[in-house]
# Entry
Amino acid sequence: MIDREGLEPYLTSDSDTTYLINFWATWCKPCVEEMPDFIKLNDELKGKAFKMVLISLDFPSQIESRLKPYIAENDIEAEIVVLDDPNSNAWIPLVSDEWSGAIPATLLYNREKRSFYEQKLDYKKLKEIVKHYIKF
Amino acid sequence: MKKNGLLLALFSAFVFSAFAGGYEPGDKATDFSLKNIDGTYVSLSDYDEAEGFIVIFTCNHCPYAVKYEDRIIALDKKYKDKGYPVIAINPNDPEVQPEDSFSNMKKRAAEKGFTFPYLFDESQEIYPQYGATKTPHVFLLEKVASDYIVRYIGAIDDNYKSASAVETHYVEDAVEALMAGEEPSVTSTKAIGCTIKTK
# Structure
């Protein structure tokens, strides 16, 4: 479980790795709809310089009742952190100036560039945008 | 590689422009005629006495919207008689999110005792003009002659989890500023919300 300070290290990196950061929650229908495509991509990129982090906005009271069962059922291997910081006006701009705050939202970055998408992404679109960062 | 970079730039520009519509503080907002839960149609121009409006795009299903229901009722009770009533609008397509159907809107409003109109943007033509992207999403309007000027866009306050832990009441502060004949000191904020549901 992290707050704004804990979120910051997930938003930049000096390494050769490409990071895909997805903001979601189990109660968010479009988030859950796009999740299988994210998991598929993550599996496909296994062994590459790629890391996917799923930042859950599930409320702390839902971690045991909803989030953990969802992770187990869907066999998710990506790192999952719960962001619990109700002053979202303070941390949304750290992710992207373009983000109004709707979820799902996805940030893709490496040490040279970043892209942000405040929308649901399907596999085709996801693959297309990730290909700008990493060959596969 | 250079070509890829250019394509990415063009692509990003497209994505950005596709989502950059809507009002900014200072813009004129459109009036509308939307169906209320009581079956009547409500427009801003119906309110002769109003000095402005607290327009809130919200819905039934979104946990953030639910967390704010009591605070939205409190805002309406506090400011309706002072000339700033709440107008709530559900922008979601119920075929995508059945909890947000018109009949469920009526049900939720009755359960919670909404004191304000709860309108249905059935054709989904109003929320894109405002630039609402999520629920809840507030647009505070000030009536200036026959225009409705946007004075604040964003969150209700700085703590969705707990009304008692709020440090800054963005909407209240902005309404108080307008009532005092001043510009709100904060004119836009960001907050997490549920994306507006469309097909």
